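re the bet — no i am not wrong, look at it urself. input seq straight from the record:
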Amino acid sequence: MDRSSIYIILITVFTSSAIVNATDEWGSEKSIRQAVRQGLAVIQKAARNYPENRSCFSCHHQTLPMQAMVVARQQGFQPDEKLLQSQAKFTLSSFDKRLKSSERRASTDPIHLSFGLWALDLAQHPADETTEAMIKLLLKKQQPDGSFGRGSNRPPLQQSVVTSTVLTVHYMRRYVGKKQNAAVEKAAARAKKWLESVKPKTQEDLNSRIGGLALLRSDPKLIAKEMKAILKAQRKDGGWAQKEDMESDAYATGQTLFTLQRVRLPVTHPAYQRGVKFLLKTQLKDGSWFVKTRSKPLQTFFDNGDPHGKHQFISIPATSWGTAALALALPKRKLHRF
């Protein structure tokens, strides 16, 4: 069965006759656009400040804000293009230094490398010696079972082996050259077998797994089963939670909505509508979303000037996911899909 057939199955099974116009269900398009503008202001400030406080690349203050900026641009907003490119240069410089240090290179985990490649891709950075070296290092880090380990365990960004595996395969393929192509495809085949058998434990696992299954052309029935699990996990308030024993938040909700759109669940689907309503209801006056941290700090805390103090390093990713998900709810949609 080809890729188009997968989408037909998903849309046929999960698109309800209850679909309505977005402005009828969520409120005005104006309110969504205002929420996106406010979110962008928060995350752009965060990304701009980070290199002034730290010299190393971060998933939470480079990649995810950059993603929201790119999605917003695709939807007709005007993010700071100079900032987007400066974040790419910062990312490239950070990995150049890391790759030249044998000690730091050995300690670099797959999810960190793949987030770096993702950031470079968002800025349309071409393949070069640095990306080749990053792929070479990633290939050495594949586990015997086919997965790519996460390295440090800092939930939720660096907790999911599923996320690490899917991002690694996706961005190795994105940047692979002729010399590495055979090795990358062999690694992707091994990762696919692991991904098809793994049991998700968190919402992030579910989200990453369905994206990976679609990316690697897995059985449509398996993808449909994963879609059911994601939709079933939606809470009564319209949001999703990171874990079953947690409450809904913008990180899990924004990421889930973004993922559903990438695997072509229409944004007019009732589940997406309810998720958008949750995000609009929970966005704070300053444009951010608050999420409480679950991660034990590995370095001395520093204030990046973002909202929510010690919780800023999860609240900024949450604001990035929320902003991107809301931007996708608007009529003009051009996001790349699997």
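see?? The radius of gyration is 19 Å. told u. also Residues 3-328 form a domain with the Glycosyltransferase fold (CATH 1.50.10.20). so pay up
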